[in-house]
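INSTRUCTION: Work out how this chain folds

Token vocabulary: learned, describes local backbone geometry

RECORD BEGINS BELOW THIS LINE
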Amino acid sequence: MKATFLTAASVTALAVAWPAAAQTMDHPQHMPGMTMPMPAAKPKPKPRAAPRRTVPMRARANPAARPAPRPASPAMPAAACPLDHAAMGHCTPEPTTTEATPVHPAPVATPAFDPACPPEHAAMGHCVPKVSAPAAAVPTTPLGTALPAGNAPAPAAPEANYADRIWGRDAMAPARATLRREHGGMTVSQLMLNLAEVHFDRGRDGYRWDGEFWSGGDINRLTLKSEGEGRFRGSAAGEVQALYSRAIGPYFNLQAGLRQDFSPGPNRTYATVGVEGLAPYWFDVEGALFLSDRGDLLARLEGYYDQRITQRLILQPRVELNLSAQDVAASRLGSGLTDAEAGLRLRYEIVREFAPYVGVSWERRFGDTARFARADGERTGGVGLVAGIRAWF
């Protein structure tokens, strides 16, 4: 029994010691040609991640309860602040400034297109352009609004000559002339009746007219003018002017022609030169000189202004002055300021072309002209009511 126990103990000790001895055995030396596999290394366990910190709901809702932001680290030289420390927020490296070198782009070559097939026609498939070798970029001359400021004359307006490349310039000339005529170059005309009124003055009632007709273009026009007055129980006196009108600016015309008087006295013919237009602040003004066939020199100044009260109700003050360089006894005129008329008329435009009006008119003769009127038994002036229409066609 004792021998059996010793034998079992020996076998058990030998079984325990055998693996350790096998690991230290020199196999190449004792067992050539045999290689024992080495056990695989066990993977290292991963470190446990730190538990995520959760913010209570009250802290999320209340911004004041959140922790204050971490102050920024002071800037440090690049040598004292490595990249790994800067990435973890331990320090802030000083920024380094580098002077950038301007880079000028190389000029882009512009391909030369076939003049017989412009790009817009090629895009619609009407033709196929023959593209030649690209030409070197050439600096272009500034045009239009790119020109420097100054008093140089304005550049010529560009001409739409695309169709000339296909049909030719001579074939397109009539179409171009029609286009210009229909877009500002046509002949237009207007008949303007400024005054057509009845004058009420304590039994000396009368009438008065003042109008003009013109026809032409923007530069050259033929103008006919007429004005005069008369009494219902007496005679009338008036004049007609035939003038050539030439634009001398955007707002004024220079006029020259003839004037013919029609009156109970001697009828005179005058050579006329004058100017009319729109002065600053929208004043319509007119001035003229008249030289008669007898050498008498007269002048006239006239102006009015349309003050809009509403879009249809307009108040118009109007002034007219007549002057003479010498006494003209045959025409009952004295030298200097012969007479003046001032009026205030309120009109209502039923349409733009037709407007009835009412108003008041004041007239007065001066100097020797007033003396001639008293000698003839006429009044030298007065105030009266007027009513009439203003129309144009």
Summary: The mean pLDDT is 79. Helices lie at 2-23, 27-30, 57-61, 83-87, 119-123, 164-167, 169-185, 367-375. The CA atoms of residues 306 and 316 lie 5 Å apart.
